[in-house]
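R.M. (postdoc): so does anyone remember the format we settled on? I'll just put the structure tokens first.
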């Protein structure tokens, strides 16, 4: 399972200020399976808005773009 940290800056995830974002490559986990679904990433408050604007991209492309913005 992926640790709950921002995929961009490794800030520990805080559900009161951050969120997860599902991208175009999102694939739900099979029923009764726990873990981190493909195409879903954790984002801190500082990177969340950029991530939400890129939900139509696959997660890898979005992450690369966001990292290059900062």
């Amino acid at each position: 399972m992926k640790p709950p940290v921002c995929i961009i800056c490794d800030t520990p995830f805080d559900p009161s200020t951050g969120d997860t974002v599902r991208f175009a490559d999102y694939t739900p986990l099979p029923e009764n399976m726990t873990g981190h679904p493909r195409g879903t990433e954790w984002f801190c408050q500082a990177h969340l808005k950029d991530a939400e604007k890129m939900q139509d991209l696959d997660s890898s492309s979005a992450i690369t773009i966001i990292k290059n913005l900062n």
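R.M.: ...and that's the designed sequence above, right after the tokens. Also worth knowing: Residues 1-26+37-70 form one domain. The chain has one domain: 1-26+37-70.
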